[in-house]
UniProtKB/TrEMBL annotation:
Any one cellular-component term (Gene Ontology): mediator complex
Protein name, as recorded: Mediator of RNA polymerase II transcription subunit 10
Compartment list: Nucleus
Highest rank taxon of the organism: Eukaryota
Major place of residence: nucleus
Subunit organization: Component of the Mediator complex.
Gene name of this polypeptide: LOC117645225
Length: 135
């Protein structure tokens, strides 16, 4: 699979370079450059045929749609994974904070319930099988 992706990458790089060269030729077109332009166009067609041949080798590669959003907005698609990891870490910290807050709330609630309703809380803890002392 890695070899197929490398072949595709090479073909795409060649294609991009041909398009760049065609742009240069066309932007300053001279009639004597027609044969060179024809060669570049033929090379472009050949490059597209090569990319088409490689499509079956990489058909199982799935690209998240967000990567295309990165490309459309002018950002480097290689940074997509880094941004995903950073977002996951941020979300993880938020969730961890919520879990800690709920644990503290539970502990405080049990202390207050024990102060107000010690008999009922002991019955509740016996039913649950929770024999740990309150913090």
């Amino acid at each position: 699979m890695a070899s197929s992706l490398e072949n595709l990458e090479t073909q795409l790089e060649l294609f991009i370079e041909n398009v760049r060269q065609i742009r240069i030729i066309v932007s300053d077109f001279q009639p004597q450059g027609q044969s060179v332009l024809n060669q570049k166009i033929q090379s472009l067609v050949h490059g597209l045929q090569e990319v088409d041949k490689l499509k079956d080798q990489v058909k199982d590669v799935h690209v998240p749609l967000e990567v295309f959003d990165y490309i459309d907005s002018g950002r480097n698609p290689q940074l997509y994974t880094k941004d995903c990891i950073e977002k996951a870490l941020t979300k993880n910290e938020q969730v961890r904070g919520k879990i800690d807050a709920y644990r503290k709330f539970k502990a405080h609630l049990l202390v207050e319930l024990n102060n107000s309703f010690p008999n009922e809380l002991n019955k509740y803890r016996a039913i649950r099988g929770d024999e740990r002392p309150l913090a």
